[in-house]
Amino acid sequence: MRLKKSSILMIAFIGLLGFLVVYPLLMVIYGSLKAGGPFAPTLFSLQGYIDAFSTGITYATLWTTLWLGVVRALLCTAIAIGLAWVVVRTDTPWGKFIELAVWTAFFLPMQPYVMAWIMLLSPVGSVNHFLMNIFALESAPIDIYSYFGIIWVSCLKYPSVIFLLITPAFRSMDASLEESSKMSGASTLTTLRRVTVPVLIPSILAGFLMMFIRVMEGFELETFLGFSKGIFVYTSRVWMLIDFSPPDFPQAMALSTVFLAMIMVLIGTQWRLLRQKEFTTVTGRGFATRPARLGRLKYVTLAIALFYVFLATILPLAAVSIGTFTKYFGYFGGDPWTLDNWTHILGNSYFWFAMKNGLILAGVSATIGMVIYALISYIIVKTRARGRGVVDVLTWLPWGVPAMILALGILWAYIGGLPLKFLYGSMAILILVQVVIRMPFGIRVMSGALIHLGKELEESARIHGASWFQTFRDIVVPLLSPAFISAWIVQFLMAFTDVASIIFLYSHKTMVLSVLMFQYWINGEDIELAAVIGVVQTFVVLVFASFSRWLAAKQEITISVR
Questions:
Q1: What is the pTM of this model?
Q2: What is the residue-wise DSSP string for 299-324?
Q3: Which domains does the chain have, with CATH numbers?
């Protein structure tokens, strides 16, 4: 029986995805059973699991990870629901400005964001200093290096992620449902609680579970604010086991395997719950999206939203920028001002070397990744080849795996399991990791664009004698270019600011800006220099993000004109 070309191509794609995603994950599990790592000349052993779960540190870490995850996910989801409701479902003024500010918070790099709040709320921070002077306090009333600090910063940074996910659902909801509730005598808040939120449960639930997984995988925020006070989550514990000398690979991989199982259970739960809950909000019987009129209450919602925007976006940006001009980060006593921090960084050749590497890593990984994502999306959406469902499932896996654990698996898979030791510390393996971990996002974006692309255009090209490749190149690619470019920019920004996925893989020759900033900060002696790098990184990110926003707006105008 001869295989068709489409079947051969599908087998090749499944093999490629298995090699890129499944193989590294299996290596994490395999490595947890071998002392010294997967390919050490030792027998199979459960010693890594025994060591990991015979100490109270592991159970304390597990409990901290779980309760911090639940609390933060609930609070962030509630804040995001409130913001989306204010912006989309009410007549609150300045809705577009609020949405733009929340969108900006989404793109702000995590490291400088945390630095800003450390400058404000550390024991010697400016806010604490102000409160001590006003109320004649002998000690700082707020300590950012605490559980409170981790929750506080999370509740300002992460709601933007859920906001961007649930806003389209809020926009597509039929306003007649809310109007019926109002006509029955329900108040605005009762309508929100008993109509709007229940109807949008699928999107809200998806946002909550995604946020829970995101905070469970968190690294920079938890390490910056918890490390000095002995507050550890799973990711920071794994980092310590591997990065500190001597490294304990079996225990780290044992913890990674257990954590991976927890995350995959959450992913499975998300899929099962969302399949069981379906609500129809757009029908063929007429559709209205009129915002609810709040009367004078709209000025209250405006004040609350602007206060959140101030805390989440404006204040952190101002704080970290001002902090770069101080002799001691966040301390304003005596004569605090200096330009030495900027002079030192901008005159440091290694900074520019790391900047160049960061731009190369982000640019190349985004380009290679988006080409691969576009091809895979086309196969999933536009073909009927057998096995495309398997391909779709495999492309979701990296989203359910912490970036640090997936990078650890790639480290062992391609450097220990294959004769590819030359990849260690190379730019090639950093690019490979970025391509793999960004796969779910890139494929979802391109699949969404392909769904709206009518098949008649391709059929017309094929009727006129064009090959599949010519059709894809001349018809599909030009029509998908706006979505492709927008997704490329987001992929670029994610790779440019990433730390967790490359913390085990970089070398002196492949140092990138985000890791250099992390090293300056974690050493505790060059915090001011880390802040300068953070401001530079933030500037680059906002420039690219603004271009993405402009491009999306231009495309929307073009489509409306057509």
A1: 0.81
A2: HHHHHHHHHHHIIIIIHHHHHHHHHT
A3: 1-35+339-562 (1.10.3720.10), 56-332 (1.10.3720.10)
